[in-house]
Amino acid sequence: MLALNAWIAIAATATVFVVLQLRRGIPTDLVFIGAAAGLTLIGVLRPERAIQGFTSDAVITIGGLLAVTAGLRITGVLDWVGELVLGSSKTDGSAIRRLALFIVSISAFVLNTALVAMMLPVVVDWCRRRQISTSKLLIPLSYLTILGGVCTLVGTSTTLIVNSHLRDAYTSRQQQLAEQRAQQARFDAAAGDSAAATADSAPPLSPEELARLARFNEGVRPMTLFEIGKVGLPIALLGAAFLVVSARFLMPDRREMIEMLDEQRREYLVEMRVSVDCSLIGQSVESAGLRHLPGLFLIEIDRDGEVITPVTPSDVIQQGDLLVFTGVVSTIVDLEKFPGLIPSTDLTYEIHPQIRRGRYLAEAVLSRSSPLIGRTLRAANFRERYDAAVVAVHRNGVRLATKIGDIKLEPGDTLLLQTRNDFVSLHRNNQDFYLVSPVDGYMPRRHERSYVAAILGLLLVAWLCASNWLKSAGVQGLGSPPIAALSIVVLLVFTRCMSTAQARNAIDLQVILTIVGALALGRALEDSGAARDIANLIVNRAGHNPRLLLLCVYLMASIFTELITNNAVAAILLPVVINVAEVAGLQPRPFVMAVALAASLPFLTPIGYQTNLMVMGPGGYQPRDYLRAGVPLALIALATAQILIPLVWSF
Predict the structure, then answer these.
(1) Which residues pair with 363 in a beta bridge?
(2) How far apart are CA 25 and CA 22, in angstroms?
(3) What stretch of H or E contains 299?
(4) Does residue 271 register a pLDDT over 50?
(5) Phi, psi for 438 (deg, rounded to 5)
(6) CA-CA 20 to 30 A from 481: which of 181, 368, 378, 561?
(7) Has residue 398 got a pLDDT over 70?
(8) CA atoms of 403 and 382, how far apart (whole Å)
């Protein structure tokens, strides 16, 4: 019979699911934190356990990885990775195929949270440029990462936790075996001395029992690097194949309102000069990626006075070309990603990176009293007057055919400006402008630091891969993923790949609070005894039938993984299934691997795994969205595991 606190913890977890399902607009982090706070107030969860998530390795690692990702994005490294992985894809189907090959291979050796944190902005950016809803790709991104994580021991934190518990259990049981053997030796030595034989009150185990205990202990030995992959790899291949074929049909198509209203937003005319070191020189317009920028259109190329219009996909970009675009602000900002493509009105833009990093984008609407009215930008000396460069001009939704320097300014013209960070505060009340406002989301690329950032990113990947071996070797500091992530953040700031403020701003508080709340719910189920009582009830009902018991263990681990965190499930169930195998007279290895696999393959809920939570907000997902592809994937994993586990590890 479950205790009152156990029922309350179960009810709170169920309430979270109901609220997320019915109240779509409510913030996810508020629901989880509210549930954790409520359980703490009524005494189900101790305060120190409720806030323990803030010091969790997973939370700190994710925070560090978000900051590292920002550094890679600011320096343009992620732009290059995105072009490498998804550049030639034109549809969500082809993108999923390329992601499946790349993600499953990499996630086998890189912790899942690290990979999703790095790839999330890449996929979101590709979706925006291709006018494809992020909801089509982000759940597949998380699922592919999860599938790849079960191919090796270091692919996911869950298998590392399982291995840590196995190491402790194996050490403890080997000590007990050594004591039993020593007791047997004492009895053998004193076989002829009845007084000595009775001195030890505990009778020794028989040689057969000692041998059986030794065989059992081998079933809880720590895993090798590729052992779990004997079943994990087939699951990953089948699951990835399923996603490639069906994800595009199963995933919802939700577009943000800002994307749906792109056609109604202000269009600017902008001129960009191809500098001598531009990466686009020698590429066609199509291969350079200038034909698939959302809301932006290349209307002409000015080459030494010769105007090429209309521009065709096969036109080759040359040094010194003046590219004339018309489009919306968000995509004009994207032109920052192309090294050597500089605004024609600011020739110091790329030449002086330090100056460029101090620049921001702002919009200013000219008033009737402005001294600029009736004058061209060239004649108005705008740069000297306001210490700002005009990047683009908008006028009442009309596409201006005149070059920017020759446009005669009129009242109401909106100017897109490249300014210093104090421009808005200095000119907010200037009578020359009706309105002055900053452009959100503008982040100047530090292309000159891209090689440094790339090296640090690769160092982090290698560090995370080696963390398990370092920890097992007794090097606790170097073997800590949080320390690895935070150290790379410090190095990115120290090497001027990003500023301290940018590192702080990169940490998504909603993601962090959601994970902390989910961890608190898991602890409530654990501390109240609900998880252990239900687990024992299910296992006891299965009896001594090994295959039925294996099925129950796998299903139990899967269900609890969807309700609480996978790491908690591994910690709760592993000692339970080892004891159950011992009582049933079976080898524990199949049941240990069932728990490790089931706890590492959560597909049905957003709180089952950190990567599912990480994509929930950017993808605009509801809990039911995870069921569409998650249920078939879970069934594929279940069937494959039930068939292969007994073949690889005997009962």
Answers:
(1) 416, 437
(2) 9
(3) strand 296-303
(4) yes
(5) -75, 160
(6) 561
(7) no
(8) 15
How many residues are present in the chain?
Answer: 651
Q: What pLDDT score was predicted for residue 637?
A: 95
Please tell me whether residue 365 adopts helix, strand or coil conformation: strand
| Contact criterion met (CB below 8 Å) for 377 and 407 | yes
**Angle at the Cα of 422 (from 416 to 424), degrees rounded to 5?**
50
User: Which amino acid does the sequence have at 169?
Assistant: A
Neighbours of 265 (CB within 10 A): 15
Tell me the two tokens of residue 164: 């840590």
Nearest to 79 by CA among 405, 530, 455, 450: 450
Q: What is the mean pLDDT of residues 506-516?
A: 76
User: Can you tell me the distance from the alpha carbon of 156 to that of 480, in angstroms, rounded to the nearest whole number?
Assistant: 14
CATH of 264-438, one of 3.40.605.10, 3.30.450.40, 3.30.2000.30, 3.30.70.1450: 3.30.70.1450
Task: State the Cα–Cα distance between residues 246 and 223, nearest whole angstrom.
Answer: 34
CA pair distance 226, 238, nearest whole angstrom: 18
- Taking the C-alpha atoms of residue 91 and residue 98, their distance in angstroms, rounded to an integer, is 11
The C-alpha atoms of residue 389 and residue 342 are separated, in whole angstroms, by: 12
- Cα dihedral sign, 366-372-375-381: negative
Instruction: Please tell me the predicted confidence (pLDDT) of residue 640.
Output: 95
Instruction: Provide the mean pLDDT of the chain.
Output: 78
Question: Token pair 């195929």 is at which residue?
Answer: 97
Q: What is the pLDDT of residue 412?
A: 83
Chain centroid, CA 218 distance in Å: 36
pLDDT tens across 555-582, in order? 988 887 887 667 667 766 777 787 777 7
What are the two backbone dihedrals, phi and then psi, of residue 395, each rounded to the nearest 5 degrees? Answer: -140, 100
Q: Are the CB atoms for 568 and 522 separated by under 8 Å?
A: yes
Q: How confident is the model at residue 85 (pLDDT cuts 50, 70, 90)?
A: confident
In whole angstroms, give the CA distance from residue 241 to residue 636: 11
Q: Give, in degrees to the nearest 5, the angle at Cα 404 between 398 and 407.
A: 70
Give the pLDDT confidence of 430-457 residue by residue, as tens digits.
888 877 877 765 556 676 788 888 888 8
Distance (Å, whole) CA 228 – CA 224: 8
Max intra-chain CA distance, the chain: 118
Highest average pLDDT, of 225-239, 352-366, 381-395, 574-588, comes from 225-239
Contacts made by residues 164-167, CB under 8 angstroms, sequence distance 24+ = 165/570, 165/571, 165/574, 165/575, 166/220, 166/221, 166/222, 166/223, 166/574, 166/592, 167/222, 167/472
CA nearest to 546, candidates 430, 448, 627, 642: 642
DSSP, residue by residue, 504-570: HHTS-HHHHHHHHHHHHHHHHHHHTTHHHHHHHHHHHHTTT-HHHHHHHHHHHHHHHHHHS-HHHHH
Q: Is the dihedral of CA 465, 468, 473, 476 positive or negative?
A: positive
Q: Is the peptide bond before 310 cis (omega within 30 degrees of 0)?
A: yes
* Every domain of the chain and the residues it spans: 157-218, 264-438
Q: Which residues of 146-171 are buried (b: 16+ CB within 10 A; e: fewer)?
A: bbbbbbbbbbbbbbbbbbbbbeebbe
**Do residues 591 and 568 touch, judged by C-beta distance below 8 A?**
no
